[in-house]
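Z., the sequence and structure:
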Amino acid sequence: YFREDLFQYCGEDRRPPYRWLLLGPARSGSTIHIDPLATSAWNAVIKGRKLWALFPPGTPKAIVKPQAWMDRKDREAIDWFLYHLPGIRQTTPPHLRPLQCVTY
């Protein structure tokens, strides 16, 4: 279910980008983010799997992207899942822990 598409009222020529095709090799991914313009998307995995960490609305940025993480030069998505996420699970109050799921 998606709410009404309000961008339809601005016309196709003024509509912001809303169609993407992303491909990546094994162990690739994106860093924690909110989709552009808070858009919604359908996601499909053709081969492999995709790991998700979905945080509750209002989770403080200091939990999701602490300064120690932001200061690193090698902020690859896989490193976040391997090294930062386990600490979140151990030290964050239960109501702020992310929901984890896998898309196959």
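The first strand starts at residue 50 and ends at 54. The beta strands are 50-54, 99-103.

Let me know what you think.
H.
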